[in-house]
Amino acid sequence: MLAAELRLHDVRVLVLEKDTEPVSFVRIVGLHIRSLELMAMRGLLERILERGRQRPAGGFFAAINKPAPEDLDSAHAYLVGIPQPVIVHLLEEHATALGAQIRRGCAVTDFEQDDDGVTVVLADGEQLRTRYLVGCDGGRSTIRKLLGVGFPGEPSRSETLMGEMEVGAPQEEIAAKVAEISETHERFWLRPAGVGVYSVVVPAEGVSDRAKPPTLDDFRQRLRAVAGTDFGVHSPRWLSRFGDATRLAERYRVGRVLLAGDAAHIHPPIGGQGLNLGVQDAFNLGWKLAAQVRGWAPVTLLDTYQAERHPVAEDVLDNTRAQMALLSTDPGAQAVRRLLTELMDFDEVNRHLIEKITAIGVRYDFGAGPDLLGRRLRDIDLKQGHLYGLLRRGRGLLLDRTERLTVDGWSDRVDHLADRSAALDVPCVLLRPDGHVAWIGDDQQDLDDHLSRWFGEPAN
């Protein structure tokens, strides 16, 4: 995703992937509302919807089964489950179509940075020179470790098995047993994931070495221990295990080296936020790093990446900590869960938690102003179609209901649409390439000041 965002601004980019082949196991991942909006902004959503399966947006906070409010502030108020190899292929195809280079079987073992760039060393001894390096290399990030960035947090204290497999037991038997066990074990479920296929989650206590991939026998053993039956599970599609380790990098940038995705933060997968958090990191960083490389970035622009995304990750880590506590079988935790289940019947509570999980509640701190300032703008109707269709080139956009403002001097970086009919309750908004509202008003001088703040000095 980051490579594609950089290519939108004609920045040369090389992706180094240590694996020789794309991931082959068919694990289903979920795209929440904000990620779907970002995909729509870049023209990817239709392809994703063709290959994924839509699900309601509710029921994700600590697996408490409450429906989402019907009037969530998005044109894409649903979740899409999509096989991991499919989303990887779609994003790779998107990046390479824009001109990104991808080299597989290339593990980074070292790097050294100076005032002008970074020298990257590969496992075979090859050295590459780049102006910037971004570590998108996961929770055990080599780049983060070499950079010496601290990764404070809590180690894993509980382990859970998760997988998809075929089940031999009758559907009625499964439903009855799951209903019974779920009353006391929140980290346990069998849910349909296709014809004859179930998603299976069960506590992993006492089985196998965490350093080794789990086996089907591990699932059978734990299912029998918890439910008294293994449900005749067989023919697994994929098997994994996860813990509740929760860590956040102290810094997202040191000089010319940056971190994104799981390299910057890890947390339990409860709520399905991890993939989405990483994609949204990339969307925030891409245009800023491109501006730095292209030479028009304001002095502090690249620093706003950490300033904006680090607090978002902190909030995700906190809500996953809370969700994991609510999955405990401890009587106190179960009492709190019952109370929260009651509270979620209030629309404001349910809405607040869903906006956290789906990231549509994120508001960056751009200073004092209306509530919309710093938030993303939904995909509103315009005379030229839908708003997100105008953001595909990754440029800023002035949406001008006064029809008298201008972006002269910044027109190489910012588009201008004069539209009195735009579905807004403010005169004008300046959108960044990531769709967040950077300015609201109707005064040209004030607009020029904010154009300079986000898009650098005007061209001569």
Automatic annotation (TrEMBL):
Task: Give the source lineage, highest ranks first.
Answer: Bacteria, Bacillati, Actinomycetota, Actinomycetes, Micromonosporales
Q: Does the keyword Chloroplast apply?
A: no
Cofactors demanded by this protein: FAD
SUPFAM superfamilies in the cross-refs: FAD/NAD(P)-binding domain
UniProt protein name? Rifampin monooxygenase
What residue stretches are annotated with the FAD-binding domain? Answer: 1-320
Reply yes or no: does the keyword Flavoprotein apply.
yes
Give the InterPro entries listed for this entry.
FAD-bd (IPR002938), FAD/NAD-bd_sf (IPR036188), RIFMO-like (IPR050641)
Q: Which UniProt keywords apply?
A: FAD, Flavoprotein, Monooxygenase, Oxidoreductase
Membrane-spanning segments: none
Q: Name one GO molecular function term.
A: monooxygenase activity
Which domain of life, per UniProt? Answer: Bacteria
